Every structure is written in C-alpha cells, then in structure tokens.
Amino acid sequence: MSPRKIRCVLGMVASDKHSKGIRTLARTFRDHGLEVVYLGEHNTAEQLAEVAVSEDADFVGVSFSTGDYVARSEELVRALARAGAEDVGVLVGGLIHPEDVPALEGLGVTGVFGPGSTRSEILEFIDRTFTPPASSERGP
Q1: pLDDT tens-place string over residues 113-140
Q2: Entry pTM
Q3: Least packed by Cβ within 10 Å: which of 4, 8, 33, 74?
C-alpha cells in the first residue's frame, strides 16, 4: 500500500484576483505529488472551509496581493474552526509584510510565505509539516 498523499485546497479569498502565483504553486504542488483542489478566485472563507472538510484536506493555501490579509486569514481560521476542522493547516502567501507574520501566526496560521519565498522552501515546509506517518491511512 502506498502512503497517502498530502491533500490541499488552494484559492483566493474575496476580491483578490492576482492568481498567477497560486496557479503556479498549484502546478508545483501537483508535480511534487500533492493532491490539489484548486478553487480559483473570489471565494469566501466559508467556501474554502467547506471544501477543505469535504475533501479531507491537510491544509488550505491562500494567496494575497491586497492589504486585508490579516483579517481574511482570521476569517478563514474561524471558518475552519466552525466547520470542526481546527486540525486543517492554513498556509498564507503573497504580498505579506514581515511585521505581520507574528499576528498571522497568533491567529493560528501554520505557515507564512512572503516575497522572496522559494518553491523549494515552501515544499520543504509542506513535507515537514504535513507528511503523515508511514502507517497512517485515510478513511473512506
């Protein structure tokens, strides 16, 4: 039996529509062996949480090019909690200011990747953080 793949949901929240970065990461993640559910632009936090639960995702990844990322990240963390998915990680990337990283981490964001983050850095973080133990099996 082969080990289960890391599964993620990727999308953009609200009116943020600069999706080139997250589309590139979706392809990179798939090439790396992750199962990717890509939702595209204009999602609500509730939609992302609902799909994360229904797809049994290990994490939700969102990308921001607007300045409201702290509030939008908080909405996502809360939506996951309301959906009973507190164990689903949240990765935030895009135009994130370094001084906001502690606030994001304080909200429960699992990983923050701002300008200058490399693909290999992100993939190494994902592998280290979300790779299940060899004996882990995903339910039906």
Answers
A1: 999 999 999 999 999 999 876 654 555 4
A2: 0.89
A3: 33
